[in-house]
Structures are given as C-alpha cells and as structure tokens.
Design goal:
By secondary structure, the protein is mostly helical. It has one domain (about 40-169). About 80% of the residues lie in helices and about 0% in strands. The protein has eight helices and no strands. The protein has helices at about 5-20, 25-60, 60-75, 80-85, 90-105, 110-120, 125-135, 145-169. α5 packs antiparallel against α6. The radius of gyration is 21 Å and the shape is extended.
Length: about 170
C-alpha cells in the first residue's frame, strides 16, 4: 500500500519521457496555474470563512433552530439534528463537530446518530462548493444554482429521517 504514490510518480515520469514531454516544465507550468487559481479564489474564500465565523458567533443558527422547532415538533422530526442541518450547507467542519456531539450524546447506532450520519453523507457544504467551483472559473452570477442546491440539502434532511425510519425501525 505504501508503494502506490511512489509507483504513480514513477509511472508519470516514465510516461512523460516515452511521450517526449519535458516532465519538469509540465510540472512547473501546472504549479503556476495552481497558484493563479489560488490567487483568484482567495478573496472569495476569505469572505466565506469570515461569514461562517460570524454566523457561528452571532447565534443565528440557534435562532433559526428555535424558529423552526415548532414545525419540526408538529411533524415529529428530531429537533436534535436541526443545528447540523442548518450548519451543514455553510460549514463542513462545524457540521462534523455537531455530528460528533450527536454520537457522543446519543450514540452512533441510535436513531439520531444514524439520521445525522445519513444527513452528513447525503448533503453538501453548498456555499463552499459554489464559492470554489464558480469562483475558480470567474462566474459571478450563480442564478438558480443556490436555490437548487439548498433544495437538495433540504431534501437530504427530510430523507435522512425517512430513510433511517424505513430501514432501522
């Protein structure tokens, strides 16, 4: 297993030499392009990181959970996974911390642990993905992407509970 990466590097160099490609020049050109991409998306990423930290520090996620809780209680939806559902589109690491807390408090094999696991696996860090993909190629108008992606995240929240209810109860 530890020989996979060195073998891949040797294969790449040998393949480049067989095809008569200057491997070092190709590598440095790729590194230059990578740095240019990093330079072009850095302001957007810094803005996203600042917004995520402000969202966490402001308590907005707790406020949203408080607003939505009566609706989730009416539908017998587990409100314990709501903070994770709210934070997941914004911050993958924050959602993972909440997932770990759910495992610690309720257990990984509990209903809540399974719902949170399915939610973590079936949802996306929407704002990060849009920032990275659209920002790296210079698209500023995201049009319907954000609405569609958030609708998919909302569907993942609902279907995580439905799926776990069907398969594990």
């Amino acid at each position: 297993m530890e020989y996979i990466i060195p073998a891949f590097l040797v294969f790449t160099v040998v393949f480049g030499l067989v095809k008569r490609i200057n491997v070092f020049d190709a590598f440095t050109d790729g590194a230059k392009q990578g740095l240019f991409t990093l330079y072009s998306i850095a302001p957007t990423m810094i803005g996203l990181i600042v917004c995520v930290n402000m969202l966490k520090a402001s308590g907005l996620t707790d406020f949203i959970v408080t607003l939505v809780k009566p609706v989730t209680d009416f539908f017998h939806f587990p409100s314990e996974i709501l903070p994770m559902a709210v934070l997941r589109p914004v911050s993958g690491s924050g959602a993972t911390a909440l997932l770990t807390g759910i495992y610690k408090d309720y257990g990984a094999d509990s209903f809540l642990g399974r719902c949170a696991s399915v939610l973590a696996g079936s949802s996306e860090t929407t704002f990060y993905a849009i920032t990275m993909y659209f920002g790296s190629i210079g698209i500023k108008k995201i049009r319907h992407t954000l609405i569609s992606a958030l609708a998919a995240d909302f569907t993942a929240v609902i279907m995580s509970v439905v799926t776990v209810s069907i398969f594990f109860t």
